[in-house]
Amino acid sequence: MSKIKYTWQDKAPLLEEKIKDHSDSGRYPFHMPGHKRRAIDFTDLYSLDITEIDGFDNLHNAQGILKEAQKRAADLYGAKETFYLVNGSTAGILSAISAALPRLGTLLMSRNSHKSAYHAVFLRELETVYLLPAATEFGISGSISPAHVAQALEDLPQISAVFITSPTYDGVTSDIRSIAEIAHAYDVPLIVDEAHGAHFIFSEEFPESALDCGADLVIQSLHKTLPSFTQTALLHVNSDRIDLDALKRFLSVYQTSSPSYLLMTSMDQCVRYMKEKGRAQMEEYLAELKTFYEQAKSLKHLKIFDSTSLSSESCFGHDISKILISVGDSGLTGQKLYHKLLNTYHLQMEMCAGHYVTALTTMMDTADGFSRLLRALKELDEKASLSARKPQGAAKVIYGAKRPGDSKLLTSNDIYQNPKPQMPISLAMEQLSERLALKSSTGHVSQEFVYLYPPGIPLIAPGEILTGKLLGIVEECRKQGLSVEGLSDPDAQSIQVVKL
Fold first, then answer.
1. Alpha-helical segments (H) within 211-366
2. Could you tell me whether strands 356-360 and 322-326 are parallel, antiparallel, or unpaired per DSSP bridges?
3. Mean pLDDT of 279-287
4. Residue 389 pLDDT
5. Any residues with CB less than 8 A from the CB of 356 and at least 6 apart, and which?
């Protein structure tokens, strides 16, 4: 094995070159963090980077300035109590699930949950019952049905808590008010991963916040959609259904014992900024966003997601700040569209999937940013029109096509199949294992997660049977250049399975 040689340089290559070069490149950030690299009232960062020294407060036993800061956040969002998260929403999800259920308990959870929820399931050795999101005509995962929640709670009295992701990575929301009422009728708490919805309360144009809908614990990432540093999030307590002491105990387990005051100052600045200027700036941003949507209606081949065309059963609501751009019949794939926007137009999207890309927008976006995106899409759309007039034009595109000659675009409906659990996640991960080539693992029980990142939602979880269909989807995702992760094999060619 060849050894990598390192040399010292006069400049720090990570910060002074790589990051600065990226910042100066002219690439427009249609991705998180929500501050979009624009400052809000910050001074020298190094002067703020301290931890629990004399005269300051301890995050895990806040009695002074941090207690006051968290109270300001609770007041802004209308929560009974709010906790700072310096390890992102991941720490909040881990803590919320751990506090809400006893070890070996049963969790009713939406299948399209972030991998951190599955990690909590593993750590607490929980049984899982999955709620499957509805399929949509656009090809993304839709909402969770309240009726399915009610049926599960009726059939399985051992369920100790419900966990729902709303909004999803695509901005789709579920009817949290109805789900909360159903859960509470069975005396079961509802936890909502609202990581992508910290901005909801600042305009009626957005969906209702889970806090206002009665969820018991709500986790929000400030850094995703508001002007706050990466890794900053909030955990809101909205009822007395979950033991507060247990929640605090798990927060101290899953978060660093040396929380950075730089991150916590960023959260406090964000809360203050949103209280004083948030609504006004949000309205200005929404005006620009609506103009973009209106002008994008002229696109003939590329298509912008419009939730109003879908039934409320498949898509209860949608956050318009997430612009989903389908390749339509342009002849592109999601991956190709992503790279064209990046390399030709210097627009960095948040993510790409088989048939669409996502532009994450926030109130820190600019009119110039929206204008650049619209111009790029119109140019690409016109090129698709010119190509379609030629005999050698692009092949007809059908979402999830199976017929020979058609160009297959994987949708979320194709990728995320109904799981076939064989054993609990924690049990599977602790069994003797063997490594098999993916193509030879059909019928075996997986000991690993397989997911696309982003968004970090498992296609396969430990303890589930590997079917030929699922393995074919994983291979197709890999061939299309989507980021297949979770496997210990970085080339995604083999998988650890439970040894028979």
1. 222-225, 244-254, 261-273, 279-296, 334-343
2. antiparallel
3. 97
4. 63
5. 138, 139, 140, 305, 324, 325, 326, 327, 334, 337
Q: What confidence tens digit (pLDDT) does each residue in 297-356 have? A: 999 999 999 988 888 889 999 999 999 999 999 999 999 999 999 999 999 999 999 999
Per-residue pLDDT tens over the stretch 376-413: 999 999 999 887 665 444 444 444 433 233 447 888 88
At residue 313, the pLDDT reads 86
CB contact at 8 A, 363 and 199: yes
d(CA 425, CA 340): 39
CB-based contacts of 200, cutoff 8 Å, min separation 6:
194, 206, 207, 208, 209, 319
Q: Quote the CA–CA distance of 312 and 310 in Å, as a whole number.
A: 7
Dist CA 12 CA 18 (whole Å)? 9
Q: 446 burial class (0-12, 13-18, 19+ CB within 10 angstroms)?
A: buried
| Long-range interactions of 203-208: CB distance < 8 A, separation 24+ | 203/279, 203/282, 203/283, 203/286, 205/286, 205/320, 206/319, 206/320, 206/321, 207/167, 207/173, 207/317, 207/318, 207/319, 208/176, 208/177
DSSP SS3 for 446: strand
What are the structure tokens assigned to 332, written together?
Answer: 């592109």
Helices vs strands, H then E, count in the chain: 16, 22
377: tokens are: 């899409």
What gap in Å lies between CA 441 and CA 123, rounded to an integer?
Answer: 26
Q: In DSSP terms, which residues pair with 235 in a beta bridge?
A: 83, 219
Assess whether pLDDT exceeds 90 at residue 469: yes
β-pairing verdict for 217-221 and 303-304: unpaired
Q: Residue 204: helix, strand or coil by DSSP?
A: coil
Give me the phi and psi of 446, to 5 degrees please. Answer: -70, 145
- Environment class of residue 271 by beta-carbon count within 10 Å: exposed (0-12), middle (13-18) or buried (19+)? buried
Contact in structure between 334 and 354 (CB atoms under 8 Å): yes
**Where is 69: in which H helix or E strand?**
helix 65-77
Element at 377 (helix H, strand E): helix 367-388
At residue 398, what is the residue type? I
Encoding tokens for residue 18? 């790589």
Max mean pLDDT among 47-56, 272-281, 477-486 falls in 272-281
Residues 212-239 have pLDDT tens digits of 999 999 999 999 999 999 999 999 999 9
Which residues, at least 6 apart from 22, have a Cβ–Cβ distance to it below 8 Å? none
Task: Report the C-alpha gap between 201 and 77 in whole angstroms.
Answer: 7
CA distance 77 to 236: 8
